[in-house]
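for the writeup, i need someone to sanity check this before i put it in the appendix. the sequnce is what the collaborator sent (i think, or maybe the updated version? ugh). structure was predicted straight from it, no edits. if anything looks off just tell me and ill rerun, i have time this weekend
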Amino acid sequence: MDEFENFIHQRGTFKPPPLPEGVTRLSGVRLVLQQNAKHPDTFGANTISLQHDDYVTMAESWKMPLGAIECSNALSVLFWSSIEDTGGNPHFRAC
């Protein structure tokens, strides 16, 4: 996974496009389509297709809980969601 760190930190290929002057990005979604998945359990409910250290790096970098929620109608793991208030700026956070 030589591009994994770039994906996690939005660098290199994964750097978002520049915004017009005066525009601020408040949030975003990163969607990756894994077209070359070959293992039959890649999207299985009991499979996390990352190495443990990479999974921990992703969860910690994105401030997600380490525990995942199994869901029968999702193609991968889901994480907790919450309402957060950061100094008068309440927002819904779904990981």
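The first helix runs from residue 4 to 9. The chain is about 15% helix and 10% strand.
thx in advance!!
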